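User: ok so my PI wants both of these folded by tonight, can you help

Assistant: No problem, let's get them done. Here's the first:
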Amino acid sequence: MLKFIRSLYFGRRLFYALSAISILFLVSFWFEPLYRITWTLAAILSVLLLTDLVTLFKGPSIGAERNLPEKFSNSDENIVKVSIKNNYGFKVFSEVIDEIPVQFQKRDFLRAAEIPTQAKIDFEYYLKPLQRGEYVFGNLNIFISTFLKLVKRRFVFNKDQVVKVYPSFIQMKKLDFLALDQKISLHGIKRIRRIGHTMEFEQIKEYVRGDDVRTINWKATAKHGNLMVNQFQDERSQPVYSVIDCGRMMKMPFEGLSLLDYAINSSLAFSNVALKKKDKVGMLSFSNKIDNVQKASSKLSQLNKIMEALYNVNTGFYDSDFSLLYSRVKKHISHRSLLMLYTNFEHTSGLQRQLPFLKALAKQHLLVVIFFENTEVTQLIKMIPKNVSESAHQTVAEQFSHNKQLMAKELQRHGIQTLLTRPSDLSINTINKYLEIKSRGLL
């Protein structure tokens, strides 16, 4: 009985009909002939209500399923599929209310559809998470009614499904092609001019128009009677590390996503490209302590290890300890490596405090400091001021933007590779920087 009561709901038509009958009873106080007609209508409504109840609750039920992917990709649109099967012998009308995880703060989800006799329908919707972690889906509630729509029967499916949100593997797959051909020209992707070539020998091949005449192998030419050239390839198996600052400065949000999550998504995409380039990849995260360390490796399983490590990276409100980073890198990374350091500086004084440790790291490794433009400040600079107050704000914003440029030049002056980028362009610019370093043979 309790199960029946919990699954029983009344439709709007019933309440409209009851409201109309109540008004007719009120009017019949002055027009007595209307009294009997109103009782007749009430009896008809009672019969229809009972018929609707018996039809819905005595007949067969429906089947439904919510299909979730194995994991969600952070900051991307993820698909959720819902299937509903009508086992009744007549057409039914359905209303689907899915209890979406609390992180989305979405409580107005409703999908209505007609389901023909013994038919199955499918629909899908998309969710865009902005935080990593576990997301719990509640009940998949389906309300079924007949063409009368006086009564609804509630069905509950897929209670408490859990899906984990990982760093953006969708973005990683989109940028995967950069490992194959860096000459592809797309919007937002910078073409890199190859200044020279590394000296890792690959093969001797026959000369074709366009080959560098400086690579002609004269001994092989004399032996074969045709011009032969040496072909070189980028050096492989070089250790490459993503070093992620988890301090309070990386807590800043842009477009709903923190700088830390931008750095994590970029690290995953960059590591994938580096692995395709046959380099060894690793990662390290730090704030006031060293949190996660993955030694560089070129194994195929390394990308999954890095993804799991990045999934567990979190930030607090601590100041980052660059001296601790320097001591740990010096102790555990003995070979000269490429260090892609994701961090952020909002003022030159913050950079000056950490500059001695950055210079020390750059002496032993090829260090690339990646920090962020403040896009909110950039928008403020572009707007036209309407009063003195807005002009003052714009002047301060221009000073902040200028300081960012000065910090980038200060790092370059000390021989440290620098990348100042907008958060939205971080992954593409980081990969381009890596490809540029590979092509120039700096490592």
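One down. Here's the second:
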Amino acid sequence: MNQNLDDQTLALAGLFQAVSLVHQTATRGQCLQDPLETTIKSLFETNPERTLDVYGDLYGLREGLKVLSRCFGNQAGQAEAQMLRYALNLVQLETRLHKQPEMLDTIGERIEQARRSVDHFGYTHPNVIRNLAGIYQDTISTFRIKINVNGHRQFLEIEDNAARIRACLLAGIRSAMLWRQVGGRRWQLIFRRGKVVDNANAMLRSLE
């Protein structure tokens, strides 16, 4: 197995897991809790020895691998098109962020501050989610490029849901950054889709 492709597939699965949680929250008012914990936890894994360490283990990325496979596959529907748009927007935002070292430092410092709340409450506690949402709002949200999240108003207007969406978008940026660091490039999302899907499906089969 191509290690470079493996690392890129894992990082993309992290990205697509984050946007899947955004989509679930916006359209259903809730999301899967195990993938949420893996996604939020990835923000605090700042010195991994290998790509998978960011997410803990392959099982924690199962939702992201499934969504990645669907979004890049031939049977993608409206929901998949929506999630793909979120993912591409996050890749674009991460490119902007990469050119803003001061903002990167600010995000890193504030995530370290949020770590104290994690130690006390756990990764998915509302206090932690709101803290991470505030980081996204004060930094990434100031870019001219905006991510318009589509869903049902009754869900989007709930403060905890809005906070969860922003926290997951921040985690999506983290995975987009990781993807770039392991050699991911935007053109590959067009020309290497088939290889990525095959690799994601092979990873899923290994979990059966």
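The chain has one domain: 3-206. The two ends are 19 Å apart (CA to CA). Good luck tonight!
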